[in-house]
Design goal:
By secondary structure, the chain is an alpha/beta fold. Among the domains are: about 1-190 and about 405-460, Zn peptidases (Aminopeptidase), CATH 3.40.630; about 255-300, no CATH class. About 35% of the residues lie in helices and about 20% in strands. It is built from 13 helices and 19 strands. The strands form five sheets. It has a six-stranded mixed sheet with strand order 1-2-6-3-7-17, with helices on both faces. A hairpin with a 2-residue loop joins β4 (about 120) and β5. α3 packs parallel to α4 and α4 (about 135-150) crosses α13 (about 445-460). Pfam families: M20_dimer (PF07687), Peptidase_M20 (PF01546).
Length: about 450
C-alpha cells in the first residue's frame, strides 16, 4: 500500500511539473490543477481515486515550497487524507487550519450532458463533478498558499492545510483529522460560505461566511405487535399505530428561535429576499414570537430551516406478509437540529409529541456529532471584512447558518472555532452541487486567490 502511494506521489509530482510550465498566472495554475483533480474519480467504493487526488495536491504543495516531510498522506480504508504543515516562527501559537475535502458525490455519465470526470471550460464556466464542491476551491487555496511562500511571506502562526477523503459519505477521515488537529486556534473551512451573483447582471450581490450548522440526526420509530391472521383484525395494528405517530410528527413544529449569529444573518439577508419573505425575516428578528412572520417563514422551504429545528419522516417499512397482521413497523425521522440543542433532547420532545408508549424511539444517527455555533470572533470577522473589502469593495458581508453537515462539525465538537469562508461567487441558478452538469464561473478564481492570500496572511501574523 505504501509503495503504491509512493508511486502515485512521484507520478503526481511529475504531472504537476509538466503542467506547471503551461499556466502563465496563478489563476491559470489553479484552474489547471482543478482540471487534473476533477479528472480523478474520487468517489467512495470500487475504483476510488481520492488517494490520487491527495498525491496530486501533495505534488503541487511540494512544488510550491512545502518540504516533502511536511506533507503527509495517510491511507484509510479505500480513501486517504492529507495534512500539510507550514511551520510558523512562534511555536507557542496555536495553528491556523485550512480545511477542505477531496472526495465528490457519485455522478453517472449517462445522465450528464458532458462526462462528469472530463473537465471542460465552456462559456466562462468550468464543468465537472467537484467544480463547485469543492475541487476548484481546494486548488485556489493551494495556489494562494504556495503563492504566499514564493513571495517570501513567513507566518508567525503555523499554517496547516488539510483535506479529508470521505466528507461526502461516512466522514471517517474528517473525524480523524479533527482529533489530530483539535489544538488548533481557528479553522477556515473552504467548503462553506460563499457569494451570490445577481441573476441579471452577474455582479456580486452579497457574500456570507458560515459560523454555524445544524446537527444532523436520524431517529427510528418502532412499533411491534404479536400480529396474526389478516382475516382476524385486532384493535391495535402496528402499521396503523405507526401511521398515527407519523401524522403527529408531520404536524409538530419546534419552537422558532434566534441565536446571536442567526439574528444578524437573517436581519442582513432580509433586503435580498423577495418582499414578503424579507418582511417576515425582519419581523421575526424583531420578535421571534411573531405568529404571522413564523407562518410565512415555515411555509417557505428556503427559510423554515433557518428559524429552528426541523424533523421529517423520510423512510417507512412495515409488515412481513400480505395476508398477515404486521408484527413490526418502522420509520426514520430525519432531523436538522438548531445549534444549542442535543439530539437526546429533540428525540425526547418528539416522544412527547407522539404521546404513545407503544412507539419506541431510538437514535440511529451515523457520521454526525452534535455541535454548537462557533463564537462571533472579532479577529476572524475583522480579517474577513478586510479581505473581502479589498477584493470586492462595497459588497455586503454577513454571517449564515448552514442546514447541511460539513467537516466543521468535527472541529466544533472539540470546541475549535470553525468558519466557512469560500470566496466563490455563483448565481443561484448555476448552483448544481451534487447535481447534474455541475459548474462554476472561472472569473471567480483570480479574486479568490487574492482573497485567500490576504486572509491567510492576516490570520497567521
Amino acid at each position: 500500500m505504501r509503495a503504491a502511494f509512493a508511486f502515485l506521489l512521484s507520478t503526481a509530482i511529475l504531472t504537476s511539473s509538466v503542467h506547471a510550465a503551461a499556466p502563465t498566472t496563478a489563476a491559470d495554475a489553479a484552474l489547471d490543477l482543478a482540471k487534473q483533480a476533477i479528472a480523478l474519480r474520487s468517489v467512495r467504493g470500487p475504483g476510488n481515486q481520492t488517494p490520487q487526488v491527495a498525491a496530486l495536491y501533495k505534488g503541487a504543495l511540494v512544488a510550491g515550497g512545502f518540504a516533502d516531510k511536511d506533507v503527509e498522506i495517510v491511507p484509510l480504508d479505500d480513501t486517504a487524507y492529507l495534512i500539510a504543515t507550514w511551520p510558523g516562527s512562534d511555536p507557542t501559537l496555536k495553528p491556523l487550519v485550512i480545511s477542505g475535502h477531496m472526495d465528490v458525490v457519485e455522478a453517472k455519465p449517462a445522465d450528464w450532458q458532458r462526462d462528469p470526470f472530463t473537465p471542460v471550460v465552456e462559456n466562462g464556466y468550468l464543468y465537472g463533478r467537484g467544480a463547485t464542491d469543492m475541487k476548484l476551491d481546494g486548488t485556489i487555496a493551494i495556489t494562494a498558499l504556495t503563492d504566499l511562500r514564493r513571495t517570501g511571506y513567513k507566518p508567525r502562526r503555523t499554517i496547516v492545510i488539510e483535506f479529508s477523503g470521505d466528507e461526502e459519505t461516512v466522514m471517517k477521515t474528517s473525524a480523524v483529522i479533527a482529533e489530530r488537529l483539535k489544538g488548533a486556534d481557528i479553522v477556515l473551512n473552504i467548503d462553506g460560505g460563499g457569494g451570490v451573483l445577481d441573476e441579471a447582471s452577474g455582479k456580486p450581490k452579497y457574500w456570507t461566511w458560515n459560523g454555524a450548522e445544524k446537527t444532523y440526526a436520524d431517529f427510528r420509530l418502532t412499533v411491534t405487535n404479536p400480529g396474526g391472521h389478516s382475516s382476524m383484525p385486532r384493535p391495535v395494528n402496528a402499521i396503523v399505530e405507526l401511521s398515527k405517530a407519523l401524522e403527529k410528527v408531520g404536524a409538530y413544529r419546534f419552537k422558532p428561535e434566534l441565536s446571536p449569529l442567526t439574528r444578524e444573518a437573517l436581519g442582513k439577508a432580509a433586503p435580498f429576499e423577495e418582499p414578503v419573505i424579507g418582511a417576515a425575516l425582519k419581523a421575526f428578528v424583531a420578535d421571534p414570537t411573531d405568529t404571522a412572520a413564523i407562518a410565512t417563514l415555515t411555509a417557505n422551504p428556503a427559510t423554515v430551516g433557518k428559524i429552528g429545528t426541523t424533523c421529517v419522516p423520510t423512510l417507512v417499512s412495515g409488515g412481513h406478509a400480505e395476508n398477515a397482521l404486521p408484527q413490526r413497523a418502522t420509520a426514520n425521522i430525519n432531523c436538522r437540529i438548531f445549534p444549542g440543542h442535543k439530539p437526546a433532547e429533540i428525540m425526547a420532545e418528539l416522544g412527547r409529541a407522539i404521546g404513545d408508549p407503544g412507539v419506541v424511539l431510538s437514535d440511529v444517527t451515523e457520521g454526525s456529532v452534535p455541535n454548537d455555533a462557533s463564537p462571533m470572533r472579532r479577529d476572524f470577522i475583522a480579517a474577513i471584512d478586510r479581505a473581502m473589502g479589498q477584493v470586492y469593495p462595497g459588497v455586503p458581508v454577513f454571517p449564515a447558518m448552514a442546514s447541511g453537515a460539513s467537516d466543521s462539525m468535527w472541529f466544533r465538537s472539540h470546541n475549535v472555532a470553525s468558519y466557512g469562508a469560500s470566496p466563490t461567487f455563483i448565481k443561484p441558478s448555476d448552483d448544481f452541487s451534487h447535481g447534474l452538469n455541475e459548474r462554476v464561473p472561472v472569473a471567480t478564481i483570480a479574486p479568490g486567490i487574492r482573497y485567500y492570500r490576504l486572509l491567510f496572511a492576516d490570520l497567521s501574523k
